[in-house]
Amino acid sequence: MSGFVSLVGAGPGDPELLTLRALRRLRDADLVLNDALVQTDLLELAPKAQRFYVGKRAGRHSIDQDGIHRLMVRAARRGQRVVRLKCGDPFVLGRGGEEALALEEAGVAYEVVPGLSSAIAAPALAGIPVTHRGLASGFAVVSGHAESAYGPIVDGIAPGTLTLVVLMGVRTRGEIAARLIARGWPASTPAAIVHGASHPGSFTWLGDLSTIGLAEFSTELPGVLVIGEVVSLASQLAVTVAQPTAFERYL
How many CB atoms lie under 10 A from the CB of residue 243? Predict the structure, then answer.
Protein backbone atom coordinates (compact mmCIF):
# COMPACT_ATOMS: atom_id res chain seq x y z
CA MET A 1 0.00 0.00 0.00
CA SER A 2 1.43 3.36 -1.03
CA GLY A 3 1.04 6.54 1.00
CA PHE A 4 1.53 10.18 0.14
CA VAL A 5 3.50 13.11 1.56
CA SER A 6 2.39 16.75 1.49
CA LEU A 7 5.05 19.39 2.14
CA VAL A 8 2.75 22.05 3.56
CA GLY A 9 3.44 25.71 4.26
CA ALA A 10 1.65 26.84 7.41
CA GLY A 11 2.06 30.57 6.77
CA PRO A 12 3.03 32.90 9.63
CA GLY A 13 0.86 31.17 12.23
CA ASP A 14 -2.74 32.40 12.08
CA PRO A 15 -4.91 29.49 10.84
CA GLU A 16 -6.96 31.92 8.74
CA LEU A 17 -3.84 32.52 6.66
CA LEU A 18 -3.60 28.86 5.65
CA THR A 19 -4.54 27.90 2.11
CA LEU A 20 -7.65 25.80 1.67
CA ARG A 21 -5.52 22.93 0.36
CA ALA A 22 -3.31 23.07 3.46
CA LEU A 23 -6.41 22.87 5.64
CA ARG A 24 -7.74 19.86 3.73
CA ARG A 25 -4.41 18.05 3.97
CA LEU A 26 -4.30 18.60 7.73
CA ARG A 27 -7.85 17.34 8.20
CA ASP A 28 -7.08 14.16 6.24
CA ALA A 29 -3.59 13.49 7.65
CA ASP A 30 -2.56 10.30 9.42
CA LEU A 31 0.77 11.78 10.54
CA VAL A 32 1.93 15.38 10.97
CA LEU A 33 5.63 16.19 11.29
CA ASN A 34 5.72 19.77 12.56
CA ASP A 35 8.42 22.39 12.93
CA ALA A 36 9.26 24.30 16.11
CA LEU A 37 7.32 27.47 15.27
CA VAL A 38 4.05 25.71 14.41
CA GLN A 39 1.50 26.66 17.05
CA THR A 40 -0.50 24.04 18.92
CA ASP A 41 -3.72 25.58 17.61
CA LEU A 42 -2.67 24.74 14.06
CA LEU A 43 -2.07 21.13 15.01
CA GLU A 44 -5.64 20.93 16.27
CA LEU A 45 -6.70 21.21 12.64
CA ALA A 46 -5.42 17.65 12.18
CA PRO A 47 -7.72 15.83 14.64
CA LYS A 48 -7.11 12.31 13.26
CA ALA A 49 -3.34 12.54 12.95
CA GLN A 50 -0.48 11.34 15.07
CA ARG A 51 1.79 14.34 15.70
CA PHE A 52 5.56 14.19 15.80
CA TYR A 53 7.70 17.21 16.66
CA VAL A 54 10.78 17.57 14.43
CA GLY A 55 11.68 21.17 15.21
CA LYS A 56 15.00 22.98 15.14
CA ARG A 57 15.60 26.16 17.14
CA ALA A 58 18.96 27.98 17.38
CA GLY A 59 21.02 24.82 17.15
CA ARG A 60 18.68 22.77 19.36
CA HIS A 61 17.55 19.97 17.06
CA SER A 62 15.00 17.37 18.10
CA ILE A 63 16.03 15.24 15.10
CA ASP A 64 18.48 15.69 12.24
CA GLN A 65 17.41 16.31 8.66
CA ASP A 66 18.16 12.78 7.49
CA GLY A 67 16.00 11.49 10.32
CA ILE A 68 13.09 13.61 9.06
CA HIS A 69 13.55 12.14 5.60
CA ARG A 70 13.45 8.61 7.02
CA LEU A 71 10.28 9.32 8.99
CA MET A 72 8.46 10.63 5.90
CA VAL A 73 9.54 7.75 3.69
CA ARG A 74 8.78 5.06 6.27
CA ALA A 75 5.30 6.42 6.99
CA ALA A 76 4.43 6.80 3.32
CA ARG A 77 5.53 3.23 2.60
CA ARG A 78 3.16 2.11 5.34
CA GLY A 79 0.33 3.75 3.39
CA GLN A 80 -0.04 6.82 5.59
CA ARG A 81 -0.98 10.33 4.48
CA VAL A 82 1.85 12.44 5.83
CA VAL A 83 1.88 16.22 6.29
CA ARG A 84 5.30 17.79 6.74
CA LEU A 85 4.14 21.06 8.28
CA LYS A 86 6.50 24.02 8.02
CA CYS A 87 6.05 27.66 8.99
CA GLY A 88 5.89 30.08 6.09
CA ASP A 89 6.52 28.44 2.72
CA PRO A 90 8.28 25.06 2.39
CA PHE A 91 10.68 26.34 -0.27
CA VAL A 92 11.66 29.64 1.43
CA LEU A 93 14.56 28.88 3.76
CA GLY A 94 12.70 25.80 4.99
CA ARG A 95 14.75 22.93 3.53
CA GLY A 96 11.68 21.83 1.63
CA GLY A 97 13.77 21.31 -1.48
CA GLU A 98 15.98 18.82 0.36
CA GLU A 99 12.93 16.92 1.55
CA ALA A 100 11.40 16.85 -1.92
CA LEU A 101 14.66 15.44 -3.32
CA ALA A 102 14.73 12.76 -0.61
CA LEU A 103 11.17 11.73 -1.50
CA GLU A 104 12.05 11.65 -5.20
CA GLU A 105 15.03 9.42 -4.53
CA ALA A 106 12.90 7.06 -2.41
CA GLY A 107 10.19 6.87 -5.06
CA VAL A 108 7.54 8.28 -2.69
CA ALA A 109 4.63 10.26 -4.13
CA TYR A 110 4.45 13.80 -2.79
CA GLU A 111 3.22 17.34 -3.42
CA VAL A 112 4.18 20.85 -2.37
CA VAL A 113 1.48 23.04 -0.83
CA PRO A 114 2.82 26.62 -0.88
CA GLY A 115 2.37 28.81 2.16
CA LEU A 116 2.41 32.53 2.85
CA SER A 117 6.05 33.32 3.60
CA SER A 118 6.86 35.33 6.71
CA ALA A 119 9.25 37.33 4.53
CA ILE A 120 6.19 39.08 3.09
CA ALA A 121 3.51 38.43 5.71
CA ALA A 122 5.41 39.71 8.75
CA PRO A 123 6.20 43.14 7.27
CA ALA A 124 2.66 43.44 5.90
CA LEU A 125 1.09 42.70 9.28
CA ALA A 126 3.30 45.42 10.78
CA GLY A 127 2.18 47.99 8.19
CA ILE A 128 5.35 47.71 6.10
CA PRO A 129 4.97 47.07 2.35
CA VAL A 130 8.17 45.46 1.08
CA THR A 131 7.79 47.46 -2.16
CA HIS A 132 6.38 50.95 -2.54
CA ARG A 133 6.53 53.35 -5.45
CA GLY A 134 9.28 55.89 -4.92
CA LEU A 135 10.83 53.99 -2.01
CA ALA A 136 11.64 50.45 -3.17
CA SER A 137 10.92 48.65 -6.42
CA GLY A 138 12.07 45.26 -5.14
CA PHE A 139 13.18 43.30 -2.10
CA ALA A 140 15.74 40.66 -1.17
CA VAL A 141 15.19 37.86 1.33
CA VAL A 142 18.14 36.27 3.10
CA SER A 143 18.82 34.00 6.05
CA GLY A 144 20.61 35.79 8.86
CA HIS A 145 21.75 32.77 10.83
CA ALA A 146 25.36 32.89 9.55
CA GLU A 147 27.69 35.34 7.80
CA SER A 148 28.26 32.86 5.00
CA ALA A 149 24.52 32.98 4.27
CA TYR A 150 23.84 36.71 4.37
CA GLY A 151 27.27 38.17 3.54
CA PRO A 152 27.36 37.80 -0.27
CA ILE A 153 23.83 39.19 -0.67
CA VAL A 154 24.30 42.08 1.75
CA ASP A 155 27.55 43.03 0.02
CA GLY A 156 25.87 43.01 -3.38
CA ILE A 157 22.97 45.37 -2.61
CA ALA A 158 23.65 49.01 -3.41
CA PRO A 159 22.49 51.37 -0.64
CA GLY A 160 18.82 52.25 -0.85
CA THR A 161 18.00 50.17 -3.93
CA LEU A 162 16.02 47.34 -2.32
CA THR A 163 14.22 46.44 0.86
CA LEU A 164 16.23 43.85 2.78
CA VAL A 165 14.23 41.20 4.66
CA VAL A 166 16.20 38.94 6.98
CA LEU A 167 14.73 35.74 8.39
CA MET A 168 16.41 34.13 11.41
CA GLY A 169 18.50 37.26 11.86
CA VAL A 170 17.63 38.63 15.31
CA ARG A 171 20.81 37.26 16.86
CA THR A 172 23.04 38.68 14.09
CA ARG A 173 21.19 41.98 13.62
CA GLY A 174 24.11 44.05 14.90
CA GLU A 175 26.60 42.44 12.54
CA ILE A 176 24.26 42.83 9.58
CA ALA A 177 23.64 46.50 10.35
CA ALA A 178 27.36 47.20 10.73
CA ARG A 179 28.07 45.49 7.42
CA LEU A 180 25.45 47.55 5.61
CA ILE A 181 26.74 50.81 7.09
CA ALA A 182 30.32 49.87 6.12
CA ARG A 183 29.11 49.51 2.53
CA GLY A 184 27.53 52.93 2.35
CA TRP A 185 24.03 52.52 3.76
CA PRO A 186 23.15 55.59 5.87
CA ALA A 187 23.06 54.83 9.58
CA SER A 188 19.66 56.56 9.62
CA THR A 189 18.14 53.97 7.24
CA PRO A 190 14.83 52.87 8.84
CA ALA A 191 14.79 49.36 10.26
CA ALA A 192 12.25 47.16 12.02
CA ILE A 193 12.08 43.87 13.86
CA VAL A 194 8.67 42.23 13.60
CA HIS A 195 8.26 39.73 16.43
CA GLY A 196 5.73 36.92 16.25
CA ALA A 197 3.72 38.18 13.28
CA SER A 198 0.13 36.85 13.58
CA HIS A 199 0.99 35.15 16.89
CA PRO A 200 -0.53 36.21 20.23
CA GLY A 201 1.65 38.89 21.82
CA SER A 202 3.20 40.04 18.54
CA PHE A 203 4.96 43.40 18.50
CA THR A 204 7.20 45.51 16.29
CA TRP A 205 10.38 47.37 17.19
CA LEU A 206 11.08 50.43 15.01
CA GLY A 207 14.40 52.22 14.70
CA ASP A 208 17.27 52.49 12.23
CA LEU A 209 20.57 50.83 11.34
CA SER A 210 22.42 52.73 14.04
CA THR A 211 20.16 51.42 16.82
CA ILE A 212 18.95 47.99 15.70
CA GLY A 213 21.97 46.25 17.21
CA LEU A 214 21.35 47.98 20.56
CA ALA A 215 17.67 47.05 20.80
CA GLU A 216 16.82 44.98 23.86
CA PHE A 217 13.79 42.73 24.26
CA SER A 218 13.00 39.50 26.03
CA THR A 219 10.87 37.22 23.90
CA GLU A 220 10.89 33.73 22.43
CA LEU A 221 8.76 34.90 19.50
CA PRO A 222 10.43 34.59 16.07
CA GLY A 223 11.63 37.85 14.57
CA VAL A 224 11.88 39.18 11.02
CA LEU A 225 14.24 42.07 10.21
CA VAL A 226 13.11 44.64 7.64
CA ILE A 227 15.59 47.28 6.49
CA GLY A 228 14.91 50.10 4.05
CA GLU A 229 12.93 53.28 3.48
CA VAL A 230 9.64 51.36 3.35
CA VAL A 231 9.89 50.87 7.13
CA SER A 232 9.07 54.58 7.52
CA LEU A 233 5.52 53.77 6.39
CA ALA A 234 4.87 51.65 9.49
CA SER A 235 4.12 54.76 11.53
CA GLN A 236 1.73 56.05 8.85
CA LEU A 237 -0.28 52.96 8.01
CA ALA A 238 -2.90 51.90 10.53
CA VAL A 239 -2.96 48.14 9.98
CA THR A 240 -5.73 46.25 11.74
CA VAL A 241 -4.90 42.62 12.40
CA ALA A 242 -8.07 40.55 12.54
CA GLN A 243 -8.48 38.20 15.47
CA PRO A 244 -8.49 34.51 14.51
CA THR A 245 -11.89 32.94 14.15
CA ALA A 246 -12.81 30.22 16.64
CA PHE A 247 -11.00 27.04 15.70
CA GLU A 248 -14.20 25.03 15.84
CA ARG A 249 -15.07 26.59 12.49
CA TYR A 250 -12.26 24.65 10.82
CA LEU A 251 -12.72 21.27 12.46
Answer: 9
Residues 126 and 226 in one domain: yes
CATH number at residue 231: 3.30.950.10
Asked if 91 contacts 84 with a C-beta cutoff of 8 angstroms, the reply is no
- For β-strands 190-195 and 203-208, DSSP reports them as antiparallel
Give residue-wise pLDDT tens across range 83-140: 999 999 999 998 999 999 999 999 999 999 999 999 999 999 999 999 999 999 999 9
Containing structural domain, residue 31: 4-116
How big is the CA angle at 239 (ends 237 and 241), to the nearest 5 degrees?
170
CA separation, residue 226 to residues 81, 90, 101, 121, 184 (Å): 37, 21, 31, 12, 17
Distance (Å, whole) CA 16 – CA 50:
22
For the annotated catalytic residues, the residue numbers are 35, 56, 168
